[in-house]
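Our consortium's second objective concerns turning raw sequence data into structural hypotheses that experimental partners can test. To show how far this objective has progressed, the report includes one record in full. It was chosen at random from the queue rather than selected for favorable results. The single chain below, 305 residues long, was entered without modification.
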Amino acid sequence: MQRVIFIIFTLTLASTGFSQTVAVPSDIQPITDAERSFEAIAGAQGIKAAYLRFLAPDSTIFRPGPINGQKYWKASTDPSSLLLSRNITYADISSDGLLGYSTGNWRLYQRGKSESLAKFGQYVTIWEKKLDGKFMATIDIDIDHDKLPFSETDRVPKGKETRDLNKRGWSPADASMKFTRLSMNPGGGLGAAYKEYAADDVRLLYDGDPPIIGKKNVVEATHTFVSMRFPEKIALYQAADMAYTWNPCQFSNNNEGMEQGNCLHIWKLRGKDWVIVLGIFARISTATPPVLKPREKKPVARSGN
């Protein structure tokens, strides 16, 4: 059967009808306001109430594959005693003010139960400005890890950043395809792809690990991974100088095992280059975990009789 590749290009400026007014360079307030409103409802009323309030009708979540978020939570019997605490550590918005994201850590716990039963991890939420002017979550994805031995501080940027309205209409599609191809090269793999396309301040979220910050650390952490095949589905959404790509992914970890899951990258146009500022790999737990190769036992020397 021939492989079918679905590439979805949605240029926000062309499809929403919003004016091309430049957002104030540091004006990420709509994103942080939406995120903190979500946090407040999740902590007070429970997870279901928060997601039904902030997920867009066409939103996507992963359980473990991509499904409609609103339909999932409407059918959920999630108990009200199960509460979610989220702490935003970084957020950004496109130069036209139509697309943004927030990321940070989460804690899932039960009201009145021991802290030892709590679970921890990191999340990424994509926010889009709708026709009524409100920001709604269109993608929500997360990974889990053990409780961190340190506390992540709020790193939401407050200074000005040079932004690009991208009036030239440059698309990240070419950079995204080249990144994917590089990740499939056994000679360099995913580490070489990040070395070529990651921003210096890139942030990588990987199941089971604390956030990996900085290009050098990300390249080092991923140099043993090689993508096993070109994804059959790729979604790309762009607004001015910001875009995100999502695709199902499968990696070989140094030929010691296979891992598969969902890969999401957030891209920013900086100067003349599209670069990755955030990546997340949410593993599907049914995948075969990496198995270390057994070491060969050296023969024991025996003395003659």
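The partners drew two points from this record. The longest strand covers residues 258-270. The mean pLDDT is 83. Both points have been shared with the crystallography group to help prioritize constructs.
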